[in-house]
Every structure is written in structure tokens, then in C-alpha cells.
Amino acid sequence: RTACACGRAWLYAAAHDRPLLASRLLHDTERAGIGGNRLLVTRGLESVDVTAVEARFWKSFATGSHAHVFQVPKAINDLKALLKDGKTADQRRLTRGDRNGLPFWLIPD
After folding, report:
1. What's the Rg (C-alpha) of the chain?
2. What is the pLDDT along the chain (109 residues), one digit of tens a residue?
3. Distances 18 to 7, 40, 65, 90, 96 between C-alpha atoms, Å
4. How many beta carbons lie within 10 A of that of residue 9, not counting itself?
5. Which of 30, 41, 50, 55 is the most buried (most CB within 10 A)?
């Protein structure tokens, strides 16, 4: 049995997403999905920055896809809690941040 995360929008972002960094340079505009200080934080979106755990997982640098963050065990476990259990970001073991009065979430190292 799975719980529904329907009706919610979420974004997993990483500072080292090579395709998005290349697109940002090519098109000279920000891209959703780039983490760190460029993390997209907006009302109605659960923004989860995986940069801290991604940087310590060497395999994440070996791939050229956006899915590389889901090779990181902590990110996989968080996504399972979201999709299988229907937990919101504040119910998972994430660190809350704040930007301009809006929450964002960090997967702790």
C-alpha cells in the first residue's frame, strides 16, 4: 500500500547537476533543479536540496543525467518516504531552511 503525494509539487535539486549547469550557461538563465544558493524556492513547492549528500557520493559525479541524485542513498530514502508513505518535507528527517520567508529543505549529511 502506498500513500498519495498527489496534489503536491516537489523539486529535488543538486548544485552539481551538469546538464542543468550547461543549460544555464548556454541559455543564460537560471534552471530549476540547480541546488545550493541557486535553489528554486517558491510558494507551493517542496524544494529539497541534496547538494550536501551528493557532494560526498562519488558516483554522482560520474553520470551526466539529472537522475544522478537518486544514486545517493539518503536521497533515495527521502523519495521513498515522500512517494510510498506520503510524508511531507516537515515529516521527513530533513533540515529546514528559509529564504524570504519561504521554507526549503536540506537532506542532512
Report:
1. 14
2. 446 666 789 999 888 877 888 888 899 988 888 888 999 999 999 999 988 887 655 554 555 556 666 777 888 899 999 989 999 998 998 999 999 999 999 998 7
3. 29, 17, 8, 29, 25
4. 10
5. 50
Among candidates 103, 108, 73, 101, which has minimal Cα distance to 11?
103
Residues 6+ apart with CB under 8 A from 71: 57, 59, 60, 63
Strand order in the sheet with 95-99: 9-13, 45-49, 102-106, 95-99
Q: What is the DSSP string of 70-88?
A: GGSHHHHHHHHHHHTT---
Please say whether the beta carbons of 48 and 10 come within 8 A: yes
